[in-house]
Amino acid sequence: MSTTSTPLVAPKIAHPVFLGFLWSGTGVSLSFVIFRLIVKIRSYRKIYSDDYLVITAWILLLGSAVLWQFMSPNLYDLFAVTSGQKPLTPDFITKNADLLRSITPFSLLFYSCLWTIKLSFLLFFRRLGFNVRGQKIWWWCVLIITILSWMVTVADHDYKCSLRPLIWIWRNCQSPSAIRFTNNTYYANCAVDVVTDCLIISIPVRMLWNVRLPIRQKLLLMTIFSLTVIVMIVSIIRVADVGSSTQQPDISWVYFWSNIEMSTAIVIACISSFRQVFVNAHNRRRQDR
After folding, report:
1. What's 7's DSSP letter?
2. C-alpha 120: how far from its chain's center?
């Protein structure tokens, strides 16, 4: 995402709201991660690989929160200066350069966090076991697609418009073609994000379809696993403001929803992992009878 010296779209998200949701999401997701670990330790006396991936995802989210705690003032100063609400100060160029350099690490944190959650789901489903060979083959296909898609989201980031000298960025990254490339990248990565989530959801759906369970219990478990749809919705909302192919979107909106998507993904991953605990409790009640 290129941040230029030209007037930007006015921010839809106020600075206090941006930071408030940023740290609220980080705190709420942490409480779910802690609860997940407590439940796993009490139920299984151990923590699995998918749990470690969720912990890793939360650390990446924390890194993003710390990054925006320091960089968000620069972002909103940029809005104020380019719109004429604040005068141009001597440190504006330095702040703008720092903001631009922070975009690349944030993008890496953002996509790595989301894809770490995707991998945690895949490992969780693998641990549940596969009844037929076709399910195992499909799991490997989804795993390979997920890893390759992460590589795509990292590779298509416009590193030049974030890491090169500020003068070069001002000259080359505010053209219609550069803005179009950035906006198209948002759309493409959103599509990849949603498609991989759909593929991951297909794994438990295929498993449950072939398992002998009461239809009511099947629907309940499918509903729990399908909570990933909430993450898909947030991902689509995130790019909803990327409308014109030649005008920069409201970047406060994009980054605001990016942080919400990360925290939501972690919460959903924790909720979905409780499905096995539910099944264990159900089996114990049947044995007691």
Report:
1. P
2. 13
242 with 187: CB under 8 angstroms?
Answer: yes
* Helix 251-273 and helix 275-288, axial crossing angle in degrees, nearest 10: 20
Instruction: Give the span between the Cα atoms of 133 and 153, in whole angstroms.
Output: 31
Are 78 and 96 in contact by the 8 Å Cβ rule? The answer is yes
- Tell me the C-alpha distance between 52 and 91, whole Å: 42
Question: What's the CA gap between 218 and 195, in Å, rounded?
Answer: 23
| CA–CA dist 69, 62 (Å, integer) | 10
How far out from the chain centre does Cα 124 lie?
18
Per-residue pLDDT tens digits for 163-191: 998 889 888 888 888 888 888 899 999 99
103, two tokens = 């975009």
Stated pTM of the model: 0.87
User: In this structure, how many other beta carbons lie within 10 angstroms of the beta carbon of residue 83?
Assistant: 13
Task: Grade residue 198 by pLDDT with cuts at 50, 70 and 90.
Answer: very high
